[in-house]
Automatic annotation (TrEMBL):
One GO MF term: dioxygenase activity
Cross-referenced InterPro entries: AlphaKG_dependent_hydroxylases, TauD-like_sf, TauD/TfdA-like
Record protein name field: TauD/TfdA family dioxygenase
Oxidoreductase recorded as keyword: yes
Entry keywords, A to Z: Antibiotic biosynthesis, Dioxygenase, Iron, Oxidoreductase
Keyword Iron tagged: yes
TauD/TfdA-like domain mapped to chain residues: 40-333
Organism: Streptosporangium fragile
Cofactor(s) listed: Fe(2+)
Protein backbone atom coordinates (compact mmCIF):
# COMPACT_ATOMS: atom_id res chain seq x y z
CA UNK A 1 0.00 0.00 0.00
CA UNK A 2 1.09 3.57 -0.45
CA UNK A 3 2.19 5.76 2.44
CA UNK A 4 0.60 9.19 2.01
CA UNK A 5 1.94 12.18 3.85
CA UNK A 6 -0.83 14.28 5.30
CA UNK A 7 -0.56 18.08 5.10
CA UNK A 8 -0.09 18.15 8.85
CA UNK A 9 2.73 15.61 8.90
CA UNK A 10 5.39 18.31 9.09
CA UNK A 11 4.32 19.11 12.65
CA UNK A 12 5.69 15.75 13.80
CA UNK A 13 8.94 15.89 11.88
CA UNK A 14 12.29 15.98 13.60
CA UNK A 15 13.81 19.36 12.78
CA UNK A 16 17.56 19.69 12.36
CA UNK A 17 19.77 22.54 11.24
CA UNK A 18 22.23 22.17 8.37
CA UNK A 19 25.67 22.77 9.81
CA UNK A 20 26.89 26.31 9.30
CA UNK A 21 23.63 27.59 7.84
CA UNK A 22 21.40 27.98 10.90
CA UNK A 23 20.70 31.60 9.95
CA UNK A 24 19.56 30.65 6.45
CA UNK A 25 17.66 27.33 6.34
CA UNK A 26 16.27 24.50 8.41
CA UNK A 27 15.80 20.90 7.29
CA UNK A 28 12.82 18.74 8.18
CA UNK A 29 13.23 14.99 7.77
CA UNK A 30 9.94 13.28 7.00
CA UNK A 31 9.06 9.97 8.71
CA UNK A 32 9.81 7.95 5.57
CA UNK A 33 13.34 7.66 4.14
CA UNK A 34 12.99 9.62 0.88
CA UNK A 35 12.29 13.35 1.26
CA UNK A 36 14.08 16.08 3.18
CA UNK A 37 12.32 19.46 3.27
CA UNK A 38 14.53 22.56 3.26
CA UNK A 39 12.91 25.86 4.28
CA UNK A 40 14.39 29.38 4.49
CA UNK A 41 14.47 31.00 7.90
CA UNK A 42 13.85 34.39 6.30
CA UNK A 43 12.03 35.43 3.10
CA UNK A 44 15.19 37.04 1.73
CA UNK A 45 17.10 33.76 1.33
CA UNK A 46 17.94 33.27 -2.34
CA UNK A 47 17.66 29.58 -3.24
CA UNK A 48 20.07 29.77 -6.17
CA UNK A 49 22.78 31.43 -4.12
CA UNK A 50 22.24 28.99 -1.24
CA UNK A 51 22.58 26.03 -3.62
CA UNK A 52 25.83 27.36 -5.07
CA UNK A 53 27.39 27.63 -1.62
CA UNK A 54 25.90 24.46 -0.12
CA UNK A 55 26.16 21.92 -2.91
CA UNK A 56 27.99 19.32 -0.80
CA UNK A 57 25.35 19.52 1.93
CA UNK A 58 22.58 18.98 -0.60
CA UNK A 59 24.51 16.08 -2.14
CA UNK A 60 24.71 14.48 1.30
CA UNK A 61 20.94 14.79 1.74
CA UNK A 62 20.37 13.33 -1.72
CA UNK A 63 22.60 10.33 -1.10
CA UNK A 64 21.00 9.63 2.26
CA UNK A 65 17.39 10.32 1.34
CA UNK A 66 17.05 10.59 -2.45
CA UNK A 67 14.94 13.76 -2.73
CA UNK A 68 15.13 17.31 -1.39
CA UNK A 69 12.06 19.56 -1.39
CA UNK A 70 12.78 23.30 -1.22
CA UNK A 71 9.66 24.94 0.21
CA UNK A 72 8.96 28.56 1.09
CA UNK A 73 11.61 30.13 -1.14
CA UNK A 74 10.43 32.92 -3.39
CA UNK A 75 10.70 31.14 -6.74
CA UNK A 76 8.15 32.48 -9.21
CA UNK A 77 7.85 31.28 -12.78
CA UNK A 78 9.95 29.26 -15.22
CA UNK A 79 12.70 31.88 -15.54
CA UNK A 80 13.44 31.91 -11.82
CA UNK A 81 13.22 28.11 -11.75
CA UNK A 82 15.75 27.99 -14.59
CA UNK A 83 18.08 30.26 -12.62
CA UNK A 84 17.82 28.01 -9.56
CA UNK A 85 18.67 24.91 -11.60
CA UNK A 86 21.59 26.68 -13.27
CA UNK A 87 23.00 27.50 -9.85
CA UNK A 88 23.43 23.75 -9.44
CA UNK A 89 24.51 22.93 -12.98
CA UNK A 90 25.06 25.47 -15.79
CA UNK A 91 23.96 22.93 -18.43
CA UNK A 92 20.29 21.93 -18.55
CA UNK A 93 19.65 18.83 -20.67
CA UNK A 94 17.29 18.42 -23.61
CA UNK A 95 14.57 15.77 -23.67
CA UNK A 96 15.96 14.10 -26.80
CA UNK A 97 14.96 10.43 -27.27
CA UNK A 98 11.95 11.00 -25.04
CA UNK A 99 9.15 8.49 -24.49
CA UNK A 100 6.22 10.69 -23.41
CA UNK A 101 4.59 13.87 -24.71
CA UNK A 102 5.73 17.14 -23.19
CA UNK A 103 6.37 20.69 -24.37
CA UNK A 104 9.05 23.30 -23.89
CA UNK A 105 8.06 26.02 -21.44
CA UNK A 106 9.61 28.83 -23.46
CA UNK A 107 12.72 28.78 -21.25
CA UNK A 108 15.68 26.72 -22.47
CA UNK A 109 15.93 23.34 -20.77
CA UNK A 110 12.63 23.71 -18.90
CA UNK A 111 9.76 21.43 -19.94
CA UNK A 112 6.21 20.78 -18.91
CA UNK A 113 5.73 17.56 -16.98
CA UNK A 114 4.34 14.66 -19.02
CA UNK A 115 1.17 15.75 -20.78
CA UNK A 116 -1.17 12.85 -20.04
CA UNK A 117 -4.89 13.43 -19.36
CA UNK A 118 -5.61 14.63 -15.83
CA UNK A 119 -7.65 11.52 -14.95
CA UNK A 120 -4.74 9.14 -15.67
CA UNK A 121 -1.98 7.92 -13.36
CA UNK A 122 1.60 8.04 -14.56
CA UNK A 123 3.31 4.98 -13.01
CA UNK A 124 6.60 5.11 -11.16
CA UNK A 125 9.70 5.33 -13.33
CA UNK A 126 13.26 6.64 -13.35
CA UNK A 127 13.70 9.22 -16.08
CA UNK A 128 15.17 7.79 -19.30
CA UNK A 129 15.99 4.45 -17.65
CA UNK A 130 15.08 2.95 -21.05
CA UNK A 131 18.29 4.48 -22.47
CA UNK A 132 22.01 4.12 -21.82
CA UNK A 133 22.45 7.83 -21.13
CA UNK A 134 20.24 9.57 -18.59
CA UNK A 135 20.12 12.59 -16.25
CA UNK A 136 21.54 12.11 -12.77
CA UNK A 137 19.24 14.75 -11.33
CA UNK A 138 15.65 15.85 -11.97
CA UNK A 139 14.21 19.18 -10.90
CA UNK A 140 10.51 19.92 -10.48
CA UNK A 141 8.81 23.27 -10.00
CA UNK A 142 5.19 23.71 -8.96
CA UNK A 143 3.72 26.82 -10.55
CA UNK A 144 0.12 25.81 -9.87
CA UNK A 145 -0.92 23.08 -7.46
CA UNK A 146 -4.01 21.10 -8.46
CA UNK A 147 -7.20 21.62 -6.48
CA UNK A 148 -7.29 17.89 -5.80
CA UNK A 149 -4.63 15.20 -6.31
CA UNK A 150 -1.77 15.81 -8.73
CA UNK A 151 1.10 14.86 -6.42
CA UNK A 152 4.39 13.60 -7.83
CA UNK A 153 4.74 10.37 -5.82
CA UNK A 154 8.19 8.92 -5.27
CA UNK A 155 9.64 5.47 -4.56
CA UNK A 156 13.09 4.39 -3.36
CA UNK A 157 14.78 2.36 -6.13
CA UNK A 158 17.01 0.68 -3.54
CA UNK A 159 13.95 -0.64 -1.73
CA UNK A 160 12.42 -1.84 -5.00
CA UNK A 161 15.51 -3.97 -5.62
CA UNK A 162 15.32 -5.39 -2.09
CA UNK A 163 11.67 -6.35 -2.56
CA UNK A 164 12.31 -8.34 -5.75
CA UNK A 165 13.58 -11.88 -5.19
CA UNK A 166 16.84 -13.00 -6.77
CA UNK A 167 15.10 -15.46 -9.11
CA UNK A 168 13.25 -12.54 -10.69
CA UNK A 169 16.30 -10.27 -10.73
CA UNK A 170 18.78 -12.76 -12.17
CA UNK A 171 17.66 -12.81 -15.83
CA UNK A 172 17.33 -9.02 -15.84
CA UNK A 173 20.84 -8.57 -14.44
CA UNK A 174 22.39 -11.17 -16.75
CA UNK A 175 20.58 -10.31 -19.97
CA UNK A 176 19.47 -6.70 -19.62
CA UNK A 177 16.34 -5.30 -21.23
CA UNK A 178 15.64 -4.81 -24.94
CA UNK A 179 13.32 -1.93 -25.86
CA UNK A 180 11.67 -2.03 -29.29
CA UNK A 181 9.83 1.07 -30.52
CA UNK A 182 7.90 1.76 -33.73
CA UNK A 183 7.43 5.44 -34.52
CA UNK A 184 4.81 6.72 -36.91
CA UNK A 185 2.11 4.17 -36.06
CA UNK A 186 -0.32 6.81 -34.83
CA UNK A 187 -0.48 5.26 -31.36
CA UNK A 188 2.59 6.90 -29.82
CA UNK A 189 5.11 9.68 -30.37
CA UNK A 190 6.38 10.36 -33.85
CA UNK A 191 10.12 10.10 -34.36
CA UNK A 192 10.17 13.87 -34.83
CA UNK A 193 8.72 14.35 -31.34
CA UNK A 194 10.90 11.73 -29.67
CA UNK A 195 14.18 12.93 -31.17
CA UNK A 196 13.25 16.65 -31.21
CA UNK A 197 14.25 17.05 -34.86
CA UNK A 198 12.90 16.72 -38.40
CA UNK A 199 16.32 15.72 -39.72
CA UNK A 200 16.71 11.98 -40.30
CA UNK A 201 20.50 12.35 -40.35
CA UNK A 202 20.44 13.75 -36.81
CA UNK A 203 18.33 10.80 -35.68
CA UNK A 204 20.75 8.33 -37.25
CA UNK A 205 23.74 10.06 -35.66
CA UNK A 206 22.17 9.88 -32.20
CA UNK A 207 21.24 6.22 -32.70
CA UNK A 208 24.78 5.31 -33.71
CA UNK A 209 26.25 7.26 -30.80
CA UNK A 210 24.02 5.45 -28.30
CA UNK A 211 24.15 1.96 -29.87
CA UNK A 212 20.51 2.02 -30.95
CA UNK A 213 19.66 -0.24 -33.88
CA UNK A 214 17.36 1.52 -36.37
CA UNK A 215 15.45 0.81 -39.56
CA UNK A 216 13.46 3.26 -41.68
CA UNK A 217 10.20 2.30 -43.39
CA UNK A 218 9.22 5.04 -45.83
CA UNK A 219 9.30 8.69 -44.79
CA UNK A 220 7.53 8.56 -41.42
CA UNK A 221 8.09 5.07 -40.02
CA UNK A 222 11.09 4.22 -37.87
CA UNK A 223 11.84 1.15 -35.76
CA UNK A 224 14.49 1.20 -33.05
CA UNK A 225 15.85 -1.52 -30.78
CA UNK A 226 18.27 -1.11 -27.90
CA UNK A 227 19.58 -3.33 -25.10
CA UNK A 228 19.93 -1.43 -21.83
CA UNK A 229 20.62 -2.01 -18.15
CA UNK A 230 18.06 -3.41 -15.73
CA UNK A 231 19.89 -3.03 -12.42
CA UNK A 232 22.75 -0.58 -11.79
CA UNK A 233 25.16 0.31 -9.03
CA UNK A 234 24.79 3.88 -7.86
CA UNK A 235 28.09 5.67 -8.64
CA UNK A 236 28.29 7.50 -5.29
CA UNK A 237 26.63 5.17 -2.78
CA UNK A 238 27.34 1.78 -4.36
CA UNK A 239 23.70 0.81 -3.80
CA UNK A 240 22.13 -1.75 -6.14
CA UNK A 241 19.10 -0.11 -7.74
CA UNK A 242 16.35 -1.28 -10.07
CA UNK A 243 16.73 1.01 -13.08
CA UNK A 244 14.67 0.25 -16.18
CA UNK A 245 11.21 0.85 -17.62
CA UNK A 246 10.23 -2.71 -18.52
CA UNK A 247 6.96 -2.42 -16.59
CA UNK A 248 6.02 0.68 -18.64
CA UNK A 249 7.03 -0.43 -22.15
CA UNK A 250 5.49 -3.90 -21.84
CA UNK A 251 2.00 -4.37 -23.30
CA UNK A 252 0.77 -5.52 -19.87
CA UNK A 253 0.93 -1.83 -18.85
CA UNK A 254 -1.85 -0.97 -21.32
CA UNK A 255 -5.56 -0.87 -20.68
CA UNK A 256 -7.01 -4.32 -21.58
CA UNK A 257 -9.05 -3.03 -24.52
CA UNK A 258 -6.07 -1.13 -25.99
CA UNK A 259 -3.79 -4.11 -25.56
CA UNK A 260 -6.28 -6.45 -27.21
CA UNK A 261 -6.59 -4.11 -30.19
CA UNK A 262 -2.84 -3.77 -30.65
CA UNK A 263 -2.16 -7.49 -30.29
CA UNK A 264 -4.57 -8.27 -33.13
CA UNK A 265 -1.79 -7.22 -35.49
CA UNK A 266 1.85 -8.19 -35.91
CA UNK A 267 3.72 -7.96 -32.59
CA UNK A 268 6.76 -6.57 -34.40
CA UNK A 269 4.64 -3.52 -35.32
CA UNK A 270 3.65 -2.63 -31.74
CA UNK A 271 4.36 1.04 -30.88
CA UNK A 272 6.55 -0.20 -28.02
CA UNK A 273 7.42 -3.51 -26.45
CA UNK A 274 10.10 -4.84 -24.13
CA UNK A 275 11.94 -8.16 -23.87
CA UNK A 276 14.89 -9.59 -22.03
CA UNK A 277 18.07 -8.56 -23.79
CA UNK A 278 18.25 -11.82 -25.75
CA UNK A 279 14.74 -11.30 -27.15
CA UNK A 280 12.93 -13.71 -24.82
CA UNK A 281 9.47 -12.45 -23.79
CA UNK A 282 8.94 -11.16 -20.25
CA UNK A 283 5.91 -12.68 -18.52
CA UNK A 284 3.06 -10.43 -17.43
CA UNK A 285 3.27 -11.94 -13.93
CA UNK A 286 6.93 -10.92 -13.61
CA UNK A 287 6.14 -7.28 -14.24
CA UNK A 288 3.06 -7.45 -12.03
CA UNK A 289 5.45 -8.24 -9.16
CA UNK A 290 7.53 -5.21 -10.09
CA UNK A 291 4.43 -3.01 -10.05
CA UNK A 292 3.46 -4.43 -6.67
CA UNK A 293 6.89 -3.52 -5.28
CA UNK A 294 6.45 0.05 -6.49
CA UNK A 295 2.99 0.22 -4.92
CA UNK A 296 4.41 -0.85 -1.55
CA UNK A 297 7.18 1.74 -1.63
CA UNK A 298 5.37 4.78 -3.04
CA UNK A 299 5.12 7.92 -0.88
CA UNK A 300 3.82 11.37 -1.67
CA UNK A 301 4.04 14.97 -0.48
CA UNK A 302 1.28 17.25 -1.88
CA UNK A 303 2.58 20.15 -3.96
CA UNK A 304 2.47 23.74 -2.74
CA UNK A 305 2.81 26.64 -5.14
CA UNK A 306 6.44 27.70 -5.49
CA UNK A 307 7.88 24.33 -4.43
CA UNK A 308 11.13 23.20 -6.05
CA UNK A 309 12.09 19.54 -5.70
CA UNK A 310 15.42 17.93 -6.58
CA UNK A 311 15.69 14.16 -6.86
CA UNK A 312 18.52 11.74 -7.52
CA UNK A 313 17.16 10.05 -10.63
CA UNK A 314 19.03 6.81 -9.93
CA UNK A 315 17.97 6.48 -6.30
CA UNK A 316 14.36 7.60 -6.62
CA UNK A 317 11.60 7.01 -9.16
CA UNK A 318 8.67 9.33 -9.71
CA UNK A 319 5.16 9.35 -11.19
CA UNK A 320 2.01 11.48 -11.18
CA UNK A 321 -1.33 11.13 -9.45
CA UNK A 322 -4.60 12.00 -11.24
CA UNK A 323 -5.91 15.46 -10.44
CA UNK A 324 -8.72 17.98 -10.76
CA UNK A 325 -8.42 21.65 -11.58
CA UNK A 326 -5.50 23.53 -13.17
CA UNK A 327 -2.04 22.10 -12.53
CA UNK A 328 1.34 23.29 -13.79
CA UNK A 329 4.51 21.46 -12.84
CA UNK A 330 7.71 22.10 -14.79
CA UNK A 331 10.71 19.82 -15.12
CA UNK A 332 14.42 20.26 -15.81
CA UNK A 333 17.22 17.68 -16.06
CA UNK A 334 20.91 18.07 -15.25
CA UNK A 335 24.20 16.15 -15.01
CA UNK A 336 24.15 13.65 -17.87
CA UNK A 337 25.30 10.15 -16.87
CA UNK A 338 26.70 7.61 -19.32
CA UNK A 339 25.67 4.15 -18.21
CA UNK A 340 28.19 2.57 -20.55
CA UNK A 341 31.15 4.06 -18.72
CA UNK A 342 29.53 4.57 -15.32
CA UNK A 343 30.48 8.25 -15.24
CA UNK A 344 29.22 11.72 -15.98
CA UNK A 345 29.47 13.01 -19.54
Amino acid sequence: MTTPLSPGASATRRRVVVSGTSDLVSVAHSPHPIISVVRPTAPSVDLGHWLRTNRERVQTLLRERGAVLFRGFQVSGPEEFHNVVQAWSPKLLNYTYGSTPRSRSGVAGVYTSTEYPADQTIPQHNEMAYARIWPEHLWFYCGTAAQEGGATPLADSRRITERLDRALLRPFVERGVRYVRNYGTGFDLSWQQAFETDDRAEVEALCRAQDIEFTWYGEDRLRTSQICQAVIEHPATGAEVWFNQAHLFHTSALAPEVRAELLEGDESELPRQVYYGDGEPIADSTLDRVRAAYAEETVREPWQEGDVMLIDNMLVSHGRDPYRGPRRVLVAMTDEHDGRTGGRR
